[in-house]
Amino acid sequence: MDTITIIGEKCIIFIILQSRYLVITEKPSSARKIAHALDDSSSPRKGKYGKVSFYVAEHKGDELVIVSAVGHLYTIEQKKGGWSYPVYDIEWVPTYESNKKLSYTKQYLDAIIGLANKIDGYVSACDYDQEGSLIAYNIIKHGIGDQALTKARRMLYSTLTSKELVSAWEHITPSLDYSVVSAGKTRHETDWLFGINLSRALTLAARRFLDFKKVLSIGRVQGPALKFVYDLEQSIQSFIPTPYWKVYAETEIEGETYSLDYEKQTLKREIHARDVARECRGKKGKVNDIDEQSKNIAPPSPFNLGDLQNDAYKHFKMSPSDTLKAAEKLYLGAYISYPRTESNKIPKEINVKEILEELSKNRKYEEESKLLLGRKRFIPKQGKGEDPAHPAIHPTGQRPRQLKKEEKNIYDLIVKRFMASLGEDLIQVDTTISIEVKGHTFYLRGILTQKTGWTQFYGEYHKLKDQRIPKIEIGQIVPITSLSTRRRYTRPSSRFNPSSLVRKMEQEDIGTKATRSNIIDTLYQRGYVKSNKIKITELGEVTIETLQTFCPDIIKVEFTRILEKELKKIEENQKDPDKVFSEAMEELKSILEDFKKNEEQIGRSISNTILGKRSLDGGESCKVCNRDKLEDSVFCQKHTDVYNRVEDEFQQWRYALGYQWVEYLEKLNKLSGTGGYVKEVIKFILR
DNA sequence: GCAAGGTC
Ligand SMILES: [Zn+2]
Predict the structure, then answer these.
(1) Is any atom of strand B within 7 angstroms of residue A162's beta carbon?
(2) pLDDT band at A159 (very low <50, low <70, confident <90, very high)
(3) pTM
(4) CB within 8 Å of A233: residues ≥ 6 apart
(5) In chain B, which nucleotides are within 7 Å of a protein Cβ?
(6) Comparing C-alpha atoms, which of A69, A173, A446 is closest to residue A294?
(7) CATH code, domain with A261
(8) Using the CA of A218, which nucleotide's C1' is the nearest one?
(9) What is the Å distance from ligand 1's center to A681 Cα?
């Protein structure tokens, strides 16, 4: 609101000018909250533009028209040409034009453009992150026009509480955050150009020798995600088990049997195991120490999306993308807060007490929420995860209606986790009783819960595992009533499942909370991986191996790290976005030239893998697979490496069991933990 | 038809 003062000769006239602002949010729920927070009477007028809701709020004499986007309303497309590569000429176009499945976005864009009428200023009120800055910029620039950009400002907030929103409005920036916008644009364009060009290059190479209907794809996030699966599969296929021995012992005290742990969890030689058995079996031991340690286990923090996806897989075997879908439904029904969050924190502005009061009206949660309400303070445990725009996932208190089974499960998990995060520490006492038998030590361990703390709110999602212990004193003599030793073999790492692969992507910091599970779905759709215990397919394998030669960067996590560093420089005005972009394009250009030059060879190796054919280019292949044989070996690189390790590991087996070479190979061949490549090599040696 | 990122 501007006050213009005109001082005439004899009088002073104040003219108060009301300004009209168009406020653009990222999603409908933020528009509603901002409108209610900023309207002086907390009751903004609600209007409809076609089917799209918008709000008109009066704020300190100004009029705010608040309308929302639905995420990105603009996307990248190639300007001209067909399905070929290289392609460098791109432009930003409305999303609904480029993707029919997203045609619903048209009504939102139409609404924003239609409402951009007699507006004094534009306000970008999208989420407080790079994508948010770009979403509003694209709409204003391409939808409303360049002249609107000069009147555009940015409103920044991290929680959608009235207090923060009012303050955000007061601290609105004088112009858009152009450096953040540039970083966002560069990210989109680099990803598009690398992703689309390399995907087409792979697909077209595969089609050279195959009637191949499918498309192949690769990208900055897909690449490393597939590489994780590939690497794990290599280690499983190359795994050679090692024998070890384990001691199982029991004692009996006052008629009750207790199992004992031997001092060493594993023994490396059979004779060591025999020694323990001979010296301790049937003997008596003396209690020489009783150690009691009380431990406090803090409550879990409320969920971020990754945690929720992980727990939903654990408890309901739901895939991460199904969990996201269910959580989205709950969010759109206003039963839970925004689910696409990386945060494990609930800021103090959120009224936890009020949420508990609402939850207590639901009989299912009445008892627990009333217990929590009996307290003086309502501070959820704060976790590590941070998010610039959204708090941790929590119930709103609003009672859900007509949920599907999966949504019901997810809702219950979220509510109980939220309540658990408000609980007190779980207190347990760990007891370790040391029993000495002829110089060998055995441990009798017990766990006793003293205070259930937060676990009483987490219900079936956390089971207490108490282990009782006998009444016993130092110096007491106890019998070893049973003792056996068993030979075991080490096992390879287990494969990823959709949830642990999301976790891995989180740990490696690739993709975002909203995209990780979808990208894993893409790997399945492409035929790169299969089954719930994720196994790479031959197609996935040949894709990784091709890229390892021709574009190793796209399957490396470091590619993302480098890009992030460059984007940060753009954000901080330390580097010209054009320079970052042209450097990336220089790299891409040389990769694509190289790819094109070798397209025939690449196509042949893809088709050979798929058809299970040996290579036809004259070179000899490995005795047990299609790959090229090394000069000084009968195997390819992979099988040669495996052969060398089979030789190395033999020493360990001879030491542990006194096995001879052939005996060793035959045993390995029978064990389930032995990797496929290992068995291929062994079968060849034993042929 | 191909990316990764938003969100319905
Ligand atoms: Zn081989």
Answers:
(1) no
(2) confident
(3) 0.92
(4) A495, A535, A536, A541
(5) 1-8
(6) A446
(7) 2.70.20.10
(8) B3
(9) 9
